[in-house]
Amino acid sequence: MGKPMAWQKSSFSESEGSCVELAWHGESVVMRESDDPGVVIRITPAALGPLIASVKSCACFT
User: Fold this and answer.
1) Half-sphere exposure of 35 (CA within 13 A, CB side)
2) What is the largest CA-CA distance in the chain?
3) pLDDT number for residue 55
4) Sign of the CA dihedral 49, 51, 52, 58?
5) Is residue 36 within 8 Å of 19, Cβ to Cβ?
6) Is 5 helix (H, G, I), strand (E, B) or coil?
7) Cα distances (angstroms) measured from residue 54 to each of 7, 39, 51, 58
8) Which pLDDT tens digit goes with each residue over 16-25?
9) Which of 10, 22, 23, 40 has the fewest CB atoms within 10 Å, counting from its CB?
10) Model pTM?
11) Sorting pLDDT into bands at 50, 70 and 90, what band is 2?
């Protein structure tokens, strides 16, 4: 069995609230929602920056 992933969440996340968690998995970054940890998506480090920028610029979060 492999080494467990070291999931990290933003320091802006509430301790009891839902949040997106990230972990390294080989050469990729994996993401999951803390409320549904069984659903994991994989993204390359090169694509992660533009994804985060896009989410930050979304008017629905302001």
Assistant:
1) 6
2) 43
3) 83
4) positive
5) no
6) coil
7) 22, 21, 5, 6
8) 667 889 999 9
9) 10
10) 0.72
11) low
Report residue 50 as tokens: 């533009």
- First-to-last alpha carbon distance for the chain, in angstroms, is 42
Quickly count: other Cβ atoms within 10 Å of residue 24's Cβ: 13
6-61 confidence digits (pLDDT tens): 999 877 776 666 788 999 999 999 999 888 889 999 999 999 999 889 888 887 75
CA distances from 43 to 5, 17, 36 (A): 15, 24, 18
Contacts of 58 (CB under 8 A, 6+ apart): none
User: Are 48 and 56 within 8 A, CB to CB?
Assistant: no
